[in-house]
Amino acid sequence: MSPKARAVTVLLTPFFVLFTVVMVVPIGYALWLSLFTEQQSGLGFGGTQTVFTGLGNYLTALGDHAFRDGFLVLIGYCALYIPLLLAGGLALALLLDSALARARRFFQLALFLPHAVPGIIAALIWVYLYTPQLSPVIGALKSGGLDFSFLSPGGALPAVVNIALWEWLGYNMVIFYAALQAIDRSVIEAATVDGAGAWRIATGIKIPLIRSSVVMVALFTVIGSLQLFTEPLIINQASSAALTSSWTPNMYAYAAAFTRNDYGLAAAASVLLALAAAVLSFAITRLSQRTPRSRTKGRTA
Amino acid sequence: MSRSWSRTSVAIAGATAALAVLTACGGGDPAAAGDGGHVTITYWGWAKGTKQTVDAFNATHDDITVKYEEIPSGGAGGYAKIANAVKAGNAPDLVSIEYPSLPEFVSQGSLQDITQYVTDDLKKQLLPQAVELTTLGGKNWAVPFDAAPQTYYYRKDFFTQHKIEVPKTWDEFRTAAAAVKKADPKARIGTFFPDDPTTFEAMVWQAGARWFATEGDAWKVDTTDPATKKVTAYWQGLLDDGLVNSATSFSPAWTGALKSGDTVGYLGASWGAGALKGLVPDQSGKWAAAPMPTWDGKPAGGMLGGSTWAVTKDSHQAAAAVKFATWMSTSPDAIKARLSSGDSSAYPAAAALRPVAKKAFDTGFYGGQDLYGLFDGAAAAIKRDWAWGPTGGTTNTTLKDAFGKAADGNGTLADAVRSAQDATVRELRKRGLKVAGQ
After folding, report:
1. Is B27 an interface residue toward A (CB < 8 Å)?
2. Could B397 and A245 be called an inter-chain contact, meaning their C-beta atoms sit closer than 8 Å?
3. Mutate to test the interface with A, among B246, B251, B259, B429 (most CBs of A within 10 A)
4. pLDDT tens-digit series, residues A80-110
5. ipTM of the complex, rounded to two decimals
6. How many whole angstroms from its chain centre is CA A250?
7. Contact flag A40-B84 (C-beta cutoff 8 Å)
8. Do A41 and B432 touch (CB under 8 A)?
9. Do the domains B2-147+305-363 and B150-302+391-435 sit in the same CATH topology, yes or no?
10. Residue A246 and residue B194: Cβ atoms within 8 Å?
11. What is this structure's pTM?
12. For tag attachment on chain B, is the N or C end more exposed, with fewer CB atoms within 10 Å?
C-alpha cells in the first residue's frame, strides 16, 4: 500500500466505522423490520408471532389517509415557512450588512440566541405563550380585538411555523450575513460610484452574488422540514384539539411504534419518508446545480 | 443486576426450591440456589409515593433489595419506555401498568404469567373487580394495587355561596352546570378532557356499556351501544351549550382554570384527591368530594386508571418481584409509607389496607371529610362486566385525536366513538385476531 493510500485509509476509517454503525446498520434494520408484522392467535393473550409480510406494511402505510395527510401538512408547512424564512433571513442580513446598521455584534448575537435553545424547550415556551388562559400575548391580542387561537386546527400550522422561524431565522441570517461579508467590496463601491442606491445594490448585486447560500439554506430547510416532529408533538400533548397524533409522517411513525406497538408499520413509514427525502434532495441538488451552469454557459457564449 | 444475582445465588425465604426450578427454566443462567441468599430486583413506576414505599421495603427486608427508577407516567411515554425495554431485552423485573393497558402488554407478550404466585389467599384480600381486570384468558398477569373508583370533587364554598345543590344524577349535574354558569359567567362545573379517553370510558362503564367482550376465541367490540350513545349525547350537549370547559388534563390550562376559580369541579377518581391537593394547595378547606353522579340516582361507577404491578417477560426474579408487589399491595407498612408522601390518596384494592389508608391520608384539604368512606361506597358500586381490550393504544389514540377535534367543534363525540370502533376492529384483524359479529 502506498503511503498515500495508507493515509487515506487511516483518515477515512473512523468516518466509515461511525457511518456504518449509526447510519447503515439502523437503516438496514429498519428495512428488515418493515418486512415483518406481528400476529396473534386466540384472544391474543398468548404473545405474538413475527410473520413475514413482504410489502404489506408499506401498503398499509400508503393506504392510511392519516399517513398521506401528513405529507400534505408538510407541503403546507414548507409553502408557508420557507418563503418567510428566506425573506426574513435575507432582510435581516442585508440590514446588518448595510451602512445603516449600528451595534452589529449585539444584533447578530441577539438574533442567533434562540437557536441555542433546544427545540423541545422552545416548543414548551411557545405552547405556554399559545395557551389562552396563561399567555400574556394572547391576552394582549384579545384586548386588541384580535381573537386568534393557535391551539385550534386552523392555528396549528401558523403556530408551528412561528416556533420554527423563532428558532431558525437567526441561524440562517448568520449564514447569509457571512456570505454577504465575503462579497468583494470593490464591486459594491463600483455600483455606488455608478449611482446605485442601497436598495438597488441589495437586489441587483448582493442577493445575486449570495445566491448559492440562499439555495443551500432552502435545500437544507426542505430536508429538515420532512423531519418535523418535536414542536408539533409538544403542541399535540398540550392540546389534542390543535393537531392529531399523526400530524406529520414522523409523528405517524412514532405513534405506530410507541402507542400501537406496530414496529413493522413504523419502520415502513420511516423508510417511505426517507425515500421521499432522498428523492427531494436529489431533485433540488440537480435543480440548483443546473441553473448556475446554464447561466455561465450563456455568459461565455 | 444479573451479575450480583449469579454471584450471590438466588434464594427467597420460603420459596427456594420452586424458584430454583423456575429460574433455571426461564433463564438458563448458572443459577445456584441456596438459603440466606439475596436478590436485587429493578422496578419502574411513577405513582405518587412510590419512592417512600420502596425505601420502606428496603429498610425492612434483607432478602430482596428493590432498585426503583421513576419513569414518566404511562400515557406520557412510560408505556413506550417499558415496551422498548422489553423488546431490547433490558427491561426491569417489575413495572407499573394501569388496568386499561394491561391486556395490550399481555397480548404483545411483554409480561410473564404469574398465576402460580397469585394465590387464592391473595385474591381473597383484593377487590374482586380488580382481580377480574388482571385475569386474562384464565391466567393472572398482574398484582392489583389500587381500585380508583370515580369520584366527583367540587368547590364547596362556591356551591354553598350560590346555593347550588351537589348533583346526584346526571340530570341534576346539567342543572347544576347551568346554575354555576349563571352564578359566575366565567365559571364552569367541570372539564371535558379530550386528551384522556379513560375519563370518558369510566363514564360509559358507569352507564353500563361493555366495549370489549369475548365470544369463544373471538373479540366482540361495541363502542356504539345504547349506553355509550347516551353518554356521548349527554356530553355533546354540555359541550355545545358551553356548560363545561374543555382542556387537556393536568395541563397548565386546566390547573390555571382551577387556580383562578374558573373551574369549580373535577370529575376524577380516588387518586385525584391527593393530586388536587398538590395542584391548588392554597384552596385548602374549600373543596369537598361527592360520589360520581349516576343515571338513575342509584350508586354505580366505573374505574378511572388504577395501577397494577406486572412482571416482565424476561425477568428471572418473578418470585421476588411478585413478593415485593404483594407487599406493596397488601402490607399496612407499604400503604403508610406511600401515603406519607402527602400527595397520594390511593384507594387500595386490598380491603384490610383501607382503614390504614384512611388514617394516613390527611383530609384537611377537604375540610376533614371522610373521603375513604366515600371511596368505599364508590368502589363497591364499580360495575362488574367491564373488560379492556388488547388494542388499548389504538382505541385510545383514535379517541384522543377525534375528541380533540370534537372539543373544537369539528365533528362530534359520536363520530369519535364510531371511528374508535372502526380503528379497533381494523387493528384486531391486522393482528390476526377474530372479531365477532362484524
Report:
1. no
2. yes
3. B251
4. 999 999 999 999 999 988 867 678 888 888 9
5. 0.83
6. 12
7. no
8. yes
9. yes
10. no
11. 0.85
12. C
Domain ranges of chain B: 2-147+305-363, 150-302+391-435
Question: At a CB cut-off of 8 Å and minimum separation 6, what does B24 contact?
Answer: B31
Residues linked to residue B266 through DSSP beta bridges, in sequence order: B153
| CATH node for A64-300 | 1.10.3720.10
Cell digits of residue B375: 371511596
Give A281-288's long-range contacts (Cβ < 8 A, gap of 24+): A281/A219, A281/A223, A284/A218, A284/A219, A284/A222, A285/A219, A288/A212, A288/A215, A288/A216, A288/A219
Q: What CATH topology corresponds to B2-147+305-363? A: D-Maltodextrin-Binding Protein; domain 2 (3.40.190)
- Tell which residue, B420, B391, B321, has the closest CA to residue B19: B321
The DSSP code sequence of A39-77 is E--TTSTT--EEEE-TTHHHHHHHH-HHHHHHHHHHHHH
Name the closest residue on chain A to residue B405, using Cα atoms. Answer: A241
Q: Check: CB of residue B99 under 8 Å from CB of residue B305.
A: yes
Angle of helix A119-130 versus helix A136-143 axis, rounded to 10? 40
- A63 vs B: CB within 8 A: no
Closest residue to A260, CB basis, from B76, B217, B394: B394
Residue B438 has what pLDDT?
A: 58
Is the pLDDT reported for residue B265 higher than 70?
yes
Q: A 131-170 residues with CB below 8 A of B?
A: 131-134, 152-153
Q: First-to-last CA distance in chain A? A: 46
Contacts B142 to A, Cβ<8 Å: none
B320 touches chain A (CB under 8 A): no
Neighbouring C-alpha atoms within 13 Å toward the C-beta of B153: 27
B196 and A CB contact within 8 Å: no
Give the CA distances from residue B51 to residues A46, B55, B334, in Å, rounded to whole numbers and listed in that order. 33, 6, 11
Q: Which of B103, B260, B408 comes nearest A152 by C-beta? A: B408
Contact A241 B432 (CB under 8 A): no
Task: Indicate the fold that domain B150-302+391-435 takes in CATH.
Answer: D-Maltodextrin-Binding Protein; domain 2 (3.40.190)
Reduced to 3 states (helix: H, G, I; strand: E, B; else coil), residue B270 is coil
Query: Are B194 and A258 an interchain contact pair (Cβ–Cβ within 8 Å)?
Result: no
Chain A residues close to B390, C-beta within 8 Å: 40, 43-45
pLDDT exceeds 90 at position B331: yes
pLDDT tens digits for range A245-284: 999 999 999 999 988 889 999 999 999 999 998 898 888 7
